[in-house]
Every structure is written in structure tokens, then in C-alpha cells.
Amino acid sequence: MVRKRPTDLPGGSESSESQQTGGGRAGAQRPPMQQQPQHPGGYQGGGRGRGSQRGGRGDVGGGISRQQYYGGPPEIQQGRGGHHQQQAGRRGGRGPGTPAGGPSRPPNPELHQATHAPYQTAVTPEAVPYGRPGPSSTMWSRPPALELHQHVQSPHQSDVTIQPVPYGSSTESYSEAGSSSQPPEPTPSEVTGKLQQLVIEPEAAPSEGMQPASSKSMRFPRRPGKGSYGTKCIVKANHFFVELPDKDLHQYDVTITPEVTSRGVNRAVMGQLVRLYRESHLGKRLPAYDGRKSLYTAGPLPFVSKEFKVPLIDEEDGPGNTRQEREFRVAIKLAARADLHHLGMFLQGRQADAPQEALQVLDIVLRELPTSRYCPVGRSFYSPHLGRRPLGEGLESWRGFYQSIRPTQMGLSLNIDMSSTAFIEPLPVIDFVTQLLNKDVSRPLSDADRVKIKKALRGIKVEVTHRGNMRRKYRISGLTSQATRELAFPVDERRTMKSVVEYFRETYGFVIQHTQWPCLQVGNQQKANYLPMEVCKIVEGQRYSKRLNDRQISALLKVTCQRPRDREDDILQTVHHNTYAEDSFANEFGIKISESLTKVEARILPAPWLKYHDSGREKDCLPQVGQWNMMNKKMVNGGKVNSWICINFARNVAENVARNFCHELAQMCVTSGMTFSQEPVIPVTSARPDQVEKVLKATYHEVMTKLQPQGRELDLLIVILPDNNGSLYGDLKRICETDLGIVSQCCLQKHVFRVSRQYVANVALKINVKVGGSNTALVDALNWKIPFVSDKPTIIFGADVTHPHPGEDSSPSIAAVVASMDLQITKYGGLVSAQAHRQELIQDLYKTWEDPVRGTVTGGMIKELLVSFYKATRHKPQRIIFYRDGVSEGQFYQVLLYELDAIRKACASLGPNYHPEVTFVVVQKRHHTRLFANNHNDKHAVDRSGNILPGTVVDSKICHPTEFDFYLCSHAGIQGTSRPAHYHVLWDENNFTADALQSLTNNLCYTYARCTRSVSIVPPAYYAHLAAFRARFYMEQETADGGSMASGAGPAARNTRGPAVNVAVRPLPQLRENVKRVMFYC
Fold first, then answer.
1. pLDDT for 186-202, tens place per residue?
2. In whole angstroms, what is the distance from residue 286 CA to residue 283 CA?
3. pLDDT of 246
4. What UniProt keywords are attached to this protein's entry (predicted)?
5. Cβ contacts of residue 1003 below 8 Å, gap of 6+?
6. How far apart are the C-alpha atoms of 919 and 907, rounded to whole Å?
7. CB atoms within 10 A of CB 937
8. Does residue 170 register a pLDDT over 90?
């Protein structure tokens, strides 16, 4: 190895699915309008999976995506119900016999806690019929309540009531082709008058006295009871019962000197200490260690504080093939006792807060043995002995398992699931680079090759191979700018220069073959060392945490994709192999673990009836096993495309082929119920991909020159793209949606060459919602029969934040919020916003700024969407249902406090007495609970993929001990094992029953616009994910690595390796107004 002196430093959709299995009415089961009696014991069950939900390019139509990957990192991880009569006394809002959905009840608690208006019982708000907006229709309000805590309901007060009045008619006709279900567009004078009341309020007032409550003053809603609606069944969950130990747990602080950052070294030191001193000084205790600062024992150690000397042999050979011995001083000091009594109280529902310290101790104890056997990554453990497969470009997948202890209704459970992730292959560096570049190593490297190699190798640990048994390890910091044959360094004080090639030949007898390649730089930049690539080998066991390319993702999915029966067998085999009964740490702490999957009572919710247009042969449809098709049906609200053009960027597609494709697509749109002109405004335009902006603007100008004199707009742009189109897709979407203000539909050339009827039918679904139409609607929504939705104006929000890919350390995160824009819950408007890197709280829900003319002005995403809902429906929402995606359990309080407060402020900015009731539900998809059929051979219990049936819901046993949560598998599996969605209610002023919220959520999953299948998470949350993914294309494009994803907030930010703490976030370009109004992200 050559040490260089300091003076010589060198310079990705859920695709539209197959339309299968038409529906009939046989055996239809309608949701109950009144709650079913609560049966003793409740029912337990649940599930979630994601049917073909890979977050990717939303509108490149066709093709079935794999269900397991959902726009995530490279690691691929393998209810409130009950009869309200029983609940009325506790919940204080429902009298006996009141139909769910239209109850009389007192005002709900408010979040604002600084100032409360006096409670005026003399004021009885009068409900306005929803179908008849009158002078008071913009004045819906309710007096603020005094109580803050969500879980404490005020007593029923009969003198303060809100009488429910039906606000819709069930006799709406859909006989006219293309008719819309929403009311007539209000006249300008009506809108102006209403908005005077709606928007123009004193702007500064709402922000006063509205600081978020602290987490101590808030409690998540308690489970109101278990659901009873649906067909009962038994499913198995990958949760294993854990017997709570009866031990006295102690926590000790650990200080290791000299301090090291590696958990592995810390564990080696502690392991040596236990071996040396367990019998003599530790009272024969076997402690569990977290690898950092904490040590746990089952019972006290025979001292309060003590220091130990621990000799440790270095794992690396030193000079002369000898291993060096280092001495560490370890101080152990009593810190606290971990009280398991409070954990028992929590599991019994007698304590509100989970004692995290006790759970953490038990988790650390159960991680001790697998940590010594496998490679730990987060809560998972991997080993090449459990299975390894090549992923390409120097990467391979390792198989492993996830393990976590969880508090549930049945007590503690150990959640175990199969998992796979990417590791760097332990190859010679030369072989790794050859795979990475996929080219002959004898050819010289281009600048792009150097960038790719440097990006892939930076931070990787290598060991040298040219010094016999002395396998010293180094971490790569970069590449030399010169080839190895050009590198020389001073060997003495007179600065006599010697080449690297000559030095290795003379010192080690090693002849460097690839002298045209650069050397690796190891160590830090101030004291860099040169190592030729061919003397280095990558150390085994290094996880690859950066972004995988499409081919690697596909290969990883093939590895992780397992049929439910196979996955269940592997989980059971893992539990058996882990031999928890013989685990010395588990035995020391008295932990006993069942070896059987947990059997859980579940219910299968029926599919909802879907409405199609009366002009079709089939006017409504009952999906079968989560699927249906468009045969003999017409869209319930067909959009209009009178003016459209086509631009072809695929040079292999001839003009006549493109023209024929457009004709087929136009015909299908008409057949499906749209009004669609058969001829484009101008003939098909062919263009080169590298001129996308120039061509788009020139073509748009040409078209508008023809249309504007006629008072017309361009309704749709059809684009034909090459199959591999780099950044073209993102550039096109950015220009169309933020600059020109047109909606576009992209189609890949492979589908243009082979036009299938199924493909163009799926594309027609997307086009319809992009131009303002609706594909289908819930029959119950049209008949005003949805509990907790149809009794008064209700807006449903979906929100998500997507973060940059691993390795993009300075790119902003993107927040997206969508909201329903019609009374039938079929259309959703969307807004997007950039915010700080890895910031999970949505910053722009509510904001204020100073205007030189108007003074303090309020705005934000919530306010804008509320105003849009009012413009579209002429009603002010009295109820808000907010589905929030992407929040982990550790962020629940933080997200609720911040975002519920923002919702409150946005509402208050629209009127001093405007306080719609809010239900805030977190949607979780990245969890490890899997549900399996109790009998895999029972054809009535599984779908064609072997998964549990769509509509399977679980709200007991494996759910939270006291809070309102449930697992719902709302979709049919395609391949692999379905993952149920986990819904957790964090705030509920609407007092949902378990049946009502579970049925609403399940039914909404059948209204997803892009395919004729139910989907695995509620559509507003899904749409928010798509909108956030789309908005990443609006940022300045990253040119490195040929990716089509936008990343980086500017040139200055792009080169920053560490998280950009103080980098200002460049705002996204604004969506054009006409784009915001439609579902452009589909």
C-alpha cells in the first residue's frame, strides 16, 4: 500500500389491471343502516396486502406490477364496533335506537385549548337540508366544547342537539350520457356572495390562542367495541404469544473507554467481560446488552457501580502476522428498575400509555441470540446461509427474518416475518467494477464510468489480499483522478518519486495488471492512501442501502415473492430454528414463546354495489372476489374530450401506427361512455426526445392558435414514449402540468405496437378521470345511505409524504394532500408541496404570511381544498375524515398534534364558528403482520392466489390492547402474500363505530379510478402517494446515473453528502389551476 503525503492530494405504477369476472347481484349483502347487536366476545381477524401497488409512473398504461414493492427502499419485507345502545352512556352522544349516521349528540371536544368560548346551551344549531343550500348553508357551526381529552365524552345533554336532516335524494337519474352527478355550476354572483362569507374573514384572529396541545393532554380514542358486520371466519397471524416474565428487571448504564462507535466492537467487549467475570463478579447473571449504553439483568447485580478491565484481541492481523491486544475499561452503574407491573396493567387496558422501557428490555433480550448468529439490520436479521441470490451489478440478496415484540389484546406477541434485502457481493473489487459497468476491463474508463464507480464504492469496506494472512481492512473514500500507471509518490525526505506500479512490484512482488484504472483512496482525504483495485476484496456482510435500479428491484421481488402457504411454512421453520425454548437469554429472563401461529377471529366484509351509467346494459355491478370488468357498462360520469392531439417520441413507431392506436383509444373511450372526438386537432406529431420542451411548447402554441378563436381549450395530450425513456416522462409531466396547464396520457411504444382491448380499456379509465369524469360510484353514496358520511356534508382527505431515495442526502421531501370534490366521493383534487429533507410533518397544511395590502393572510393546502370543495358542491363540509399515510408508531403523537392543529386553524380561518368534526386515521402499509387462511385447501376461504379473501378485517387479539385500530385486507392477491393495511384512529370527534369505519374504508377501496379491482389501501391515501411521487418530477432533474427520477433541490445542494440541515427548500413550480381540479396524478 502506498501512503500519499498531504501535499500530493489529487483534485418508478400501479398499472391498470386485467378486467375480469363480471358481477351479478346474486347473494348481495348490503351494509346495515342500523348497527347490529354486539355479540359477546367480539370477533378477531384482519389483513392487508397491496395488490399491484408499485409507486411508479402513474399513467404509462398497461402491464401488471408486482404487489410487494411500493415505491420503497431496497429492503423488501417479506375497529370500532358494537351496538351504540351499549355505548351510549360511556360515549355520551347516541340515544337508544338512533340510526348510525344521523345521531343526536352534543358538541365534540375541540383541540384549541388556549381560549374557550362560554358554553351557551340556549343556542341550538339548526341543520340545513343538504340538498337545499339556503342563506344559512354557509353558517354551519357548533359551540366549542370545554373538554379537550378525546377519550372522555361529555354526558348526553338533550337540550343541545343537532337534528339530522337528509341532505340528498335517492332519485338522481343517470340516464343522460355524460351527465354529471354534481349540482349545476354556481353563477359568478352566487360564488362571490358565498365566498364573501366563506373566505373573507379577519385573517389574524385564527392563529391566536391555538397552539397544539401537548401529548400528555391528549389520548388516542379507545376502541368503542368490536365490529360484528360481515361473515365470520378464522385466520392465522404471524404473531407468537409471549408469556410475560415474572422477573425483577434492572437497567445499568455502561461506559466503555476508549470509546468506540462500532456496536460490533462494543458487543465483543461486553461478551468478553461476561465470559471473564460472570461467575466471579456478576452474581452468575447473564445480562442483555443493547450495543450502546444500556445493560439489562433479570435481578440485581451484586454491586451498584463497578469498573472492569477487559482485554480484547484485535480481529485484524498486525505486523508479523500477530494480532494486537487492546485493553478496555468498562464502567457499569445501576440506572433504574424496569417495572413489568405497568406493562401488565397496560396489556389489561388499565393503563393508557405503553411502558416503552419494559418493551425495549424484552426486545433487546430476544435480539441477543440472533445478533450473535446473523447480520442485524434494524429489526431484521440476515445470513447468506438462509439464502442468497445475485441481483446484478455486484449486489446479491440475503434472506432473513424480521422480529419484534408487540403489545396486543392477547398480551405480548412476537411478530416474525420473512425478509430479504440487498448486500454487496464479497467480490474482488475488479470483479465488482466489471459487473457494475458491464464492460471489458481492458477498455479505458469514461467520466461517466468514474462517477458510477465512485458512487458505488464510496463508504464500502475492503480488505487487502497482497499481504498473505495480514488482511487489513479499510473504508473507501474515493478514486484517484489519475490512472494507476501515472501515480507516483515521494519515498524519502528528498522527495524521490516512485511509481505505484514499481512500489508494489519491489515491495510485495505484486505485478499490477490493470494499470489504466484508477486506484482506490482509503482513509480520510487529509491522509489518503492508494490501493490498486486488484489487491482489494470487498468484506462480506455489508448491506447496500442506496437505491436499486429497476432490474435489481425486479430480481429482489422474485426472491421475496412467496405464496402464502410457503411463507407460513418458512415463518414456522424460522421460529423452530431459532429455538427460543433453548435461548439462554430468554431463559435467564423467564421469557417463553409459543411456536404456533395465532388463530384470530376475522370477518369478511361484503363488496359494495357499484353504479354505472343507465345507458349501459349493466347499470350496476357487484364485484366478485375484489374484481369486476367494464363489459356492458358505461362510466357513471363520462368526461368530454373535444380537442386532443398526439405527440410521438418513439422513433420506431411510424405515423400510421400511431394514428391507428389513437383511433382505437378514441373508440374505446366512446364505448366506455365518454364524449371523445375521433380526430385530433392537428395530425400526429413526431419528435425527438431531447427536444421535449421545445416541441411541447411549439405544438401547444400551434394548436391554441386554432382553438382560441373558437373559445375552446386543449382537453388532452396523448404521448407515445420509447420503452426506455430516461428523464423524458418526468420532463413531459413537469412542462404539461406546471407550465402549459394540460393533462396528458403517456403510452409506451410496446403497447402501441400490440394494441390489446384490455389495455386501451384501462387507459380509457385513466383518461376519464383526468378530464373530470368519474368511472363508477358507490350505490350507497348515490342513495345517501353511507353511515357517518351521508347524513351531512363530508369531505375525505388523503395525505402522504414521500422522502428521497437512500443516498440522496439533500433532496427535499414531497408532501401531497388530496380531498374529495363531490358528494359521491369519486373525484379528488390534489395539491403538492416541497419541504425539508426527511421532514414527516406536512408543513404547508396551514400557513400565514404578510401581504403589503391585506396584512396577515392565511392559506395552505387544507384551506385551499376546503374552498375547492365548496365551489364544487356549494356546501361547507361539516365532517372531515383524514386518512394519513406513511406515519410510524413513534411519530403518532407528533403528527397528530401538528397536523390536527393545522386542520383546526385552516377551518377557523374560514369562519370564527366553523368547527367541523374531524376523524384522523393513520394508514400503515410498512408493517410485518401477515394473515393466512386457517385451511389453505379450503377453496371458499382463499382467492386464486391462495391469499385470504378481500374484505377480511381483524380488530381483536393481535390489535392494540385498548386503542381503535384494525387490519383490513381489502384487495385480492395477485402474487406473493397479501399485506393487510393497518388503520389506527388517532382522533375521532365523529364517534365512528367499528362497523361504520371498517365498512366505509373497505367500500372506498372499490372506487379506485385506475383499475377495476379493489386496492389494498384506501384510495385518498393512495392518490396522495401518487401525487407526491409525481411532484418529484417537478424538481430540477438529476443527470447522474441516468435515472428518470428528479432529485436534488439545486446544484449547490446536490453535492452535499450529509443531511442538508440549513439548505433552503426550493418551492415546487405551481400546478396550473385547471390541472389542480382534476385527478392529474392518475
1. 444 444 444 344 433 33
2. 9
3. 81
4. Repressor, Ribonucleoprotein, RNA-mediated gene silencing, Translation regulation
5. 31, 608, 778, 780, 786
6. 14
7. 8
8. no
Q: What is the C-alpha separation between 466 and 337, in angstroms, rounded?
A: 52
Strand segments (E) across 11-52 = none
- Predicted confidence (pLDDT) at residue 10 exceeds the cutoff of 70: no
**Cα(832)–Cα(818) distance, integer angstroms:** 9
- The string of DSSP letters for 1071-1082 reads PPHHHHTTTTT-
Strand order in the sheet with 536-538: 2-3, 529-532, 518-522, 473-483, 461-464, 536-538
Segment 648-661, tens digit of pLDDT: 999 999 999 999 99
> For all residues of the chain together, what is the average pLDDT?
81
- Burial level of 63, CB count in 10 A (0-12/13-18/19+)? middle
* 440: helix, strand or coil: coil
Provide the Cα torsion 994, 1000, 1003, 1008; round to 10°. -130
Which set of grid coordinates corresponds to residue 839?
Answer: 421532514
Q: Determine the residue type at 28.
A: A
3-state per-residue secondary structure call for 175-193: CCCCCCCCCCCCCHHHHHH
Amino acid at 155: P
- Residues paired with residue 965 on neighbouring β-strands, in sequence order: 984
- What does the pLDDT read at residue 1? 54
Q: Grid cell 506500479 — which residue?
A: 501
3-state helix, strand, coil in the chain (%, to 5): 25, 25, 50
| Strand order through the sheet with 610-611 | 620-621, 610-611, 777-778
Q: Give the predicted TM-score (pTM) of the model.
A: 0.80
Measured CA to CA, the distance from residue 609 to residue 889 in angstroms comes to: 34
Q: Are 606 and 457 in contact (CB under 8 A)?
A: no
Burial class (CB in 10 A: 0-12, 13-18, 19+), 358: buried
Distances in whole angstroms, Cα of residue 542 to Cα of each of 398, 401, 538, 814: 11, 17, 9, 30
* pLDDT higher than threshold 70 for residue 318: no
In three-state form (DSSP H/G/I as H, E/B as E, the rest C), the secondary structure along 943-955 is: CCCCCECCCEEEC
Residue 532, Cβ neighbours under 10 Å: how many? 27
Q: How confident is the model at residue 1054 (pLDDT cuts 50, 70, 90)?
A: very low
Q: Is 588 helix (H, G, I), strand (E, B) or coil?
A: helix
User: Residue 958: pLDDT band by 50, 70, 90 thresholds?
Assistant: very high
> What residues contact 586, with CB distance under 8 A and at least 6 apart?
365, 366, 369, 580, 592, 593
Backbone angles phi, psi at 450, to 5 degrees: -60, -45
| Tens digit of each residue's pLDDT (9 = 90 or more) over 974-994 | 989 999 999 999 999 999 999
C-alpha cell at 1038: 438529476
